[in-house]
Amino acid sequence: MTDKYTQFVSSGLGKELARKLGLPQPVVLRRHAPGQPLVPGPVLVQGDTRGADELASALLSWDLDVRRHAVPREKLGAIVVVLDELVHPVDLEKPVLAAAASLRDLAPSARVVTLSRTPASAAAPAVSAAREGVHGLLRSLAKELRAGATANGIVLADGVNTTTPSTLGALRFFLSGRSAFVDGQLLTVTSGSGSPPDDVERPLAGKVAVVTGAARGIGAAIARTLHRDGATVVAVDVPAAGDHLAAVANEVRGTALQLDITGADAGNRIIGHAVERHGRLDIVVHNAGITRDKLLANMDPSRWSSVIGVNIAAQLRINDALLASEHFRSAPRIVSVASTSGIAGNRGQTNYAASKAGVMGMVRATAPFLATSGGTINAVAPGFIETEMTARIPFATREIARRLNSLQQGGRPGDVAEAIAFLASDAAGGISGEILRVCGQNMVGA
Ligand code: NAI
Fold first, then answer.
1. Which structural domain, as residue segments, surrounds residue 244?
2. Do 287 and 320 fall into the same domain?
3. Which residues partner with 78 through β-bridges?
4. pTM over 0.85
5. With 63 labelled, which of 258, 324, 390, 423 sits at a CA distance of 20 to 30 A?
6. What is the pLDDT of residues 366-404, one digit of tens each?
7. Are residues 18 and 113 in the same domain?
8. Distance of CA 295 from the midpoint of ligand 1 (Å)
9. 198 within domain boundaries
């Protein structure tokens, strides 16, 4: 599960060799560590709108070194480009080219973040074109950045501005090492809900979180990350994984619940366990998932039904129980794990891709039902993640799959967990019905 190539080309000799041979040159990404500065240098805020001024003031209150104009040859930790008043595509030129002049000054693992308005609500074609233009620009820029730097965009829905709590929450996430493997993505802030964290190192303090499929892989990483961020964790997995499950639950000082999530009473057992053992339930992470790959021409009913059953039907049934429960009404959070296979499709994975695209459809349609209780539901869609599952892929196929993204490496289970922890936090209370890819800007398909 280790990427020895990335380690090799990060050394002096390996770096030189890869450069001479024209091989991929992935770098070791800057990931979150407690107490670490948010960004690796000053933050340049580009844009001359009121929204840009207000955002710059907000960033100053985070104790960041904020610049409103570039200082020649100064290494930058981030460039934030505020594009919140575009009315025509020609408006892009000034702020974008101003930001371009500073791109060569970005430090390794630096960040570029755009803030723009949603094209969905623009009635005038020129306004829509300008706003949509930001998306193409952002995705292309992410492919141009080097040395672990990423570019992501925050899209403001109607009524949302540059200092709305979840705009700032998303910006903090994108600037930080928590988003190391999120690249080329646009995340919409859908409402003014949400609140800033009391403690940025422990944003989930006091929350009780259930994580399914927590005995290993990405689920175990989610349990660890939610615990690190202050949550009390209920780790759920099938009885056959009992020993591993107990080990994870002990490690995070939470409790274990042996449960097959496809059971008819799974939702009520989850609620019952959380409330009886921990007094409440705030967060449910639907992570458990399986693959049973076969070309559709060779697909048998059991492969098809087991994947649909675990990956989407169980989530729908558990959500019905959660939405009906009086114990899940205080700004609750649901985060589901989808997959880039559900977006781009993958040969041999019609069943899996149907289930994961289904997760995304479920998330979008469930969001309004949770809004009445101040709740949110979102999904993360991982790309190539270094787990036991991907370690079993034959060497050559694995090497190609893990390099086919802008960061030229696979993500870690912890990278998926960081995105989930963010979406589960109060700071993300204004983000619902959204899909966030954690894929290093995977180049396969969409
Ligand atoms: P994994 O196979 O290592 O772990 C999945 C866990 O879910 C296991 O502990 C398993 O026992 C549990 N589980 C399976 N069926 C269950 C059931 N009926 N009830 C309760 N628990 C059950 O998988 P991994 O790689 O950690 O993946 C986690 C999630 O991330 C899955 O939803 C997967 O589809 C998704 N994903 C993984 C990617 C990767 O590169 N590894 C890429 C994209 C998505």
1. 208-438
2. yes
3. 43, 111
4. yes
5. 423
6. 999 999 999 999 999 999 999 987 888 888 888 888 889
7. no
8. 21
9. no
